[in-house]
């Protein structure tokens, strides 16, 4: 199955919003820097004022106290001298007074020196704080410069990628017009762009772009390229498959999901790529998308991708174990015929692989499709009005009927009656012959036909 998307590269991609966002972030950072600078300057001014006030007050208090004590000591000293002159000896009480005076002077001097030392320590701490703040300011200023530089670099990268994407879109359109003019049909040979070395890696890098338009345009280009078998290997080798699965897993945009799923469905046409898809968790990613998507075209792409995986007989157990079959059947909730065509195709592919394994003796027991409850839907749609749904279901019934272990379930589920109808009325002769041969070769079916007295 090939799923193709027409590439429409818009001339106006919303890169301006990215620049505006960067401007807002830079403005925020600048305002925060200015706010912190103002707070810092206010703190420095406040602490400096307080320190100067404390120093002046301490100096004034010290000077006043010292002067008072000096005058008092001077007075006491003169009085003591006078008394000494009047007396021939110094009484014991005068010695005690002189000692107390000296002690008080020493204590006052020590207290003043302690206060001064304390203020000196505060000033040293203020200087250290100022140095630390200056260091922080330098760091913040450097960060602002780096942010501004990064912003300019990012703007340049956006402009460059925008130019390349628009140029690529122009070349795709030009190639398409040339092919239409020369009668080669509407399909643009986008692969030629790769042969000329026109930036597969650059396109894949845009799958992670923040701008939705750029991302969608890039995945559309990859989806178109993946429809060409010659491009698929290049896309996978360049990491495109991993990027597409990641995009499908993480994107909430339905357009992105739809186009990514179509690219994965295209890549899933190749057996080697099928193994890589499964190894990278592709079944779970597709199953989750199938459960959450509502758009019929997205579901069609997801069902198509799973249907392609169902054609690989080595993946049968993993598809069943990782809920791939349940996801396929779960998509029948969408009534769109295109979705049902892919579901029926996947069931037919899976039944064909099981029939092959049964014939080779590598599978015993009932079909995994029957165990997962798919048979009622198969029987219900065996005569579907949509011809492609009907043809796939008719083939699925024929393949299931070739394994005798399925006969009892098919008889009880009414599938045998549909097989009889197919053997009579199917418009394709090869399917009629296959259904008839299957009915004849099954002892269980022969016994039921005889019991019901069905003429076929």
Number of helices, where a helix is a run of at least 4 consecutive DSSP H or I residues: 21
The helix/strand class is mainly alpha
Order of helices and strands: HHHHHHHHHHHHHHHHHHHHH
Radius of gyration: 44 Å
Strand content: under 5%
CATH architecture heading of one domain:
Orthogonal Bundle
CATH topology heading of one domain: Helix Hairpins
Tally of DSSP β-strands: 0
Shape: rod-shaped
CATH class of one domain: Mainly Alpha
In percent, how helical is the residue content? Answer: over 70%
Average pLDDT: 81
- The poorly predicted ranges are 3-13, 185-191
Please outline the major beta sheet: none
- Tell me the span between the first and last alpha carbons: 35 Å
Structure description:
With 456 residues, the chain is mainly α. Among the domains are: 15-161, Helix Hairpins, CATH 1.10.287; 324-456, Leucine-rich Repeat Variant. 79% of the residues lie in helices and 0% in strands. It has 21 helices and no strands. The chain has helices at residues 15-86, 92-181, 191-195, 200-205, 212-226, 229-237, 240-250, 254-267, 271-279, 282-292, 296-310, 316-321, 324-330, 337-360, 368-371, 375-380, 387-401, 407-412, 415-425, 429-441, 443-452. It is rod-shaped, with a radius of gyration of 44 Å. The two termini are 35 Å apart.
